[in-house]
Design goal:
The protein has 248 residues and is α/β, with parallel strands linked by helices. The protein has 2 domains: 111 residues, Rossmann fold (3-Layer(aba) Sandwich); 124 residues, Rossmann fold, CATH 3.40.50. Helices cover 32% and strands 23% of the residues. It is built from 9 helices and 11 strands. The strands form 2 sheets. It has a 6-stranded mixed β-sheet with strand order 3-8-7-4-5-6, sandwiched between helices. β1, α1 and β2 form a beta-alpha-beta unit. The longest helix is centred in the N-terminal third of the chain and has 13 residues.
């Protein structure tokens, strides 16, 4: 059986140049995009139950653009004025630049890492006296707060938004040759939406070690893992698999 249809459990890329579009063009396959999860707000009343005061903190750690949006959304809902002295530590340069959506960039103290949390910690260590605010989803990598605790940072972990399963009732998973997953929450959504799903000949691809573990823990077979030494991206792993598989 040749691979003809692929389902990617993420939104369709908004850019014209995407490796998934190249897959379609170069290997005569069809790629559909359908997010298996989405983010929902946590209301100010729900946040208050966490008993964390944003303005008690002197710095914020942002690991995503979504965290930025929800931090400022919640501040607005609670009618808080974030002081200009607040420092912002971002996981990447792109995340830092996204702050311009909410604040005057040039007037703030903004720091960014190379895309890894370890690098962000190295930068933040120079400001170890700060009281950090860490906005997260209810589903997050526990290693993030764990590393801050290990390095003895003073910080508060706050849940500002939640990740929930999308309604996939109109989707026919068994019509795809490959389904691509990126987070454990994607696997949970599959189980929730299709409790009787049988993998059979459907190939499962996953990105990252935690997602790979979620696949196998759910009782599924992992056929295309990424990243790999010769396949740093999911698209590359798919391309290599298709080249080999479709020759048969």
């Amino acid at each position: 059986m040749k691979i003809k249809k692929i389902l990617v459990t993420q939104p369709r890329p908004q850019i014209e140049k995407s490796p998934y579009f190249d897959l379609e063009k170069n290997h005569n396959v069809h790629v559909d995009f359908r997010p298996f999860i989405h983010v929902e707000d946590i209301a100010a009343s729900e946040f208050r139950r966490q008993k964390i005061a944003i303005l008690d903190h002197t710095a914020v750690i942002f690991t995503s653009r979504i965290a930025i949006d929800h931090f400022f959304r919640l501040a607005k809902e609670m009618r808080l004025t974030i002081p200009e002295t607040m420092k912002y530590f971002c996981i990447s340069e792109a995340t830092a630049f996204y702050l311009q959506k909410h604040i005057t960039y040039r007037k703030r103290k903004i720091f960014y890492a190379n895309g890894t949390f370890d690098d962000l910690i190295t930068i933040a260590k120079k400001y170890s006296n700060e009281n950090f605010f860490l906005p997260l989803s209810d589903i997050h990598k526990q290693e993030i707060p764990d590393k801050l605790t290990k390095e003895k940072f003073k910080f508060s972990k706050a849940i500002l938004y939640k990740t929930v399963s999308s309604d996939l009732s109109d989707l026919q998973c068994d019509s795809y040759d490959v389904i691509v997953f990126f987070t454990p929450a994607d696997i949970a959504s599959l189980k929730q939406n299709f409790p009787n799903f049988q993998q059979n000949d459907t190939l499962i691809a996953s990105f990252g070690t935690t997602t790979a573990k979620a696949v196998t823990d759910a009782g599924f077979r992992l056929d295309i893992p990424a990243p790999a030494p010769k396949a740093p991206s999911m698209a590359t792993a798919l391309e290599q698999f298709i080249k080999k598989h479709n020759k048969k």
